[in-house]
Amino acid sequence: MENRDELLKYTIPQLLRWRVNETGDKVALREKDFGYWNNYTWNDFYDRVRKIALGLDKVGVKKGDKLALIGDNIPELLFMAIGAQSIGAISAGIYQTTLPDEIADLINYMDVTAVFCDDQEQVDKLVEVRERIPQVRKVIYEDPRGMRSYRADDWYLFIDDLYEIGASVHAQDRQKFDAFIDQGHPEDVCHFCLTSGTTGLSKASMLTHKNYIAMGLQITAVDKLESTDEYLSFLPFAWIGEQMNSFGVAMATGITINFPESVETSMADLKEIGPHFMFGAPRIYETIRSQIWLKIDESYWLNRKAYNYFIKIGEQAATYRMSGKKMPIVLRFKAWLGKVLMMDPLINQIGLRRLRRAYTGGAALGPELFTFYQAIGVNLKQIYGQTEIVGIAYMHRDGDVRPDTVGKPLPETECKISEEGEILSHSPSVTVGYYKMDEQTTELLEGGWLHSGDAGYIDENGHLVVIDRLADVMHNMNGDMFSPMFLENKLKFSPYIKEAVVFGDKMEYVSALINIDPIVVGKWAEDHRISFTTYMDLSGKPEVAELLKEAVTEINARVEKDHFRIKRFAVLYKLLDMDDGELTKTGKLRRKFIMQKYKDLYDALYDESVTTKKVEAFFQYQDGQSTTVEAEMKFYTMEGVA
Tens digit of pLDDT for each residue in 358-398? Predict the structure, then answer.
């Protein structure tokens, strides 16, 4: 990019001002509200940020203060974040699914003095813990519905009132906002991004303006984006993957960010936008794949036959396309025919027709799922990184996509493997450290390299291969090493399996707790006239167990080493859930927590005499009510596994 060196001299607010001068009338943001898409040009974007910044300063938010953001993805999250950054304050994203007590802990840890919420649901969480967060001086909200009774308390501030305050300040002093922006420096910390919290309370990574902008430039140096490209913002804003695109990529390239009407409508809105590039956690792609399989299953007999034929052709073609090798002319014709007749209409139904590239990160994606997307014509590529390096350090290149790797380092990124096998990185996007955690920061950045905590190696092609978390790599009783994540990804490629937790550390054999996919398995049960009521009922059906046995048998047959094979499994009576502490906010397994919570099931997996076990299932509903249900879980032993 010709302006690369110039852009790295800017802060995010300064880059926004530069963007306005370059393409002020172009649409920067688009939001769906009540069924209509509303546009914000770069000029509108800048105007809202200016009002927010001057308004925040007027109500007492100053340089160095922290402003927390809690809510679904809406343009106002960006207005508030960049507005705060404009006056030297620091923004911080908190997941909208976070419970009140944890919100209070995070606010106190990060020394937050003002909070922005999108609606009453989030505001009420703060009301519940108000006495625990006395340092919070203002709670700003965007949606006034249900907030009438709060208006009398000056602790609350409606965003429209903040806009008016900011507009009034600007009318009196038209140089004030520019003066604020000019004081910023690229090396200033501008945002706290919370880590996934797999081992406890999240840590706040202190990220600078330069961290974000450098990342945006590094990504687009590999995969060029056009200013006319569209992106759908449906990942949680508190996740680094979304900030990477909103703060870094969008500012560096001038693309348009689209905000869905709600989390629930995001997949439907995806169809309307037809984005040119897409970024998502593995769960997103697993969900879309399940939708595709359902569409095929519900289709006519001839369509199913055609799909099964052309998906095999697509897989063959994908191996050439991913490796950059020239495809044989006959295969090229068959792949083209399958694309025209089957794959293009199929992916058009889910809004992926215009995709040039799709990225996945946040957790490993199984090679089979990679090949599946490449086979249907979606250029899916793996990225790898972490919060502390603004999301990405390694990614696949077009024509060099290897499903079992995460690609090569981005420009200006270095990689090496420590003697212990840990992946170490160096990049302009590496965090300056964790807030108020000097000891953890020293460990993280020891020797001037970012320590990932992941085990991996660099293969003969210069690609990085990630094995697993160092802490999660397991050894059986004989000392043979294996990766539970590798097996979990193999299991999840089955359309019937939504989640899996593999055990076996210091044990005689490998075992697993499995979550079925309620949509796919439910449809299968209906087709086979198997009646069921709840997820618990469905998961306990012997016919479902036979389905899973087939999936496990197939995986075991493809595993080369005996100690990798799964010997025992059970179907968990409930879906693993973030609210129950079993998954992080980004959908990662909290393996140790799960093992402790289901200790009785874990013990049963390693007692081959146990075939059934009565359990008490505790359920917490969204309205606060709870219930305990007795269930009988069955445990299955695979034949032929030592």
Answer: 998 766 676 778 889 999 999 999 899 999 999 889 999 99
Are the C-beta atoms of residues 487 and 564 closer than 8 Å to each other?
yes
pLDDT tens by residue, 325-336 = 899 999 999 999
β-strands 357-360, 612-620 pairing: unpaired
**C-beta atoms surrounding 300 within 10 Å:** 8
Q: What one-character DSSP code corresponds to residue 397?
A: B
Question: Which tens digits make up the pLDDT trace of 585-599?
Answer: 777 888 889 999 999
Q: Domain limits of the chain?
A: 14-210, 278-469, 474-637
Question: φ and ψ at 102, to 5 degrees?
Answer: -70, -35
Superfamily (CATH H level) for 474-637:
ANL, C-terminal domain (3.30.300.30)
Using alpha carbons only, give the angle 286, 291, 296 rounded to the nearest 5 degrees. 125
CA 542/CA 561 separation, integer angstroms? 29
The one-letter code for the residue type at 317 is A
Q: Return the structure tokens found at 403.
A: 């499903």
Question: Could you give the CA distance from residue 636 to residue 632 in angstroms, rounded to a whole number?
Answer: 13
Please list, in sequence order, all residues whose beta carbon lies within 8 angstroms of the beta carbon of residue 307, skipping any fewer than 6 positions away.
296, 299, 342, 346
What is the full DSSP assignment across 319-349? HHHHHTPPPPHHHHHHHHHHIIIIIHHHHHH
pLDDT tens string 239-251: 998 999 998 899 9
CATH class (in words) of the domain with range 14-210: alpha beta
Q: Is the dihedral of CA 372, 378, 382, 386 positive or negative?
A: negative
Residue 173: predicted pLDDT: 96
Q: What is the largest CA-CA distance in the chain?
A: 81
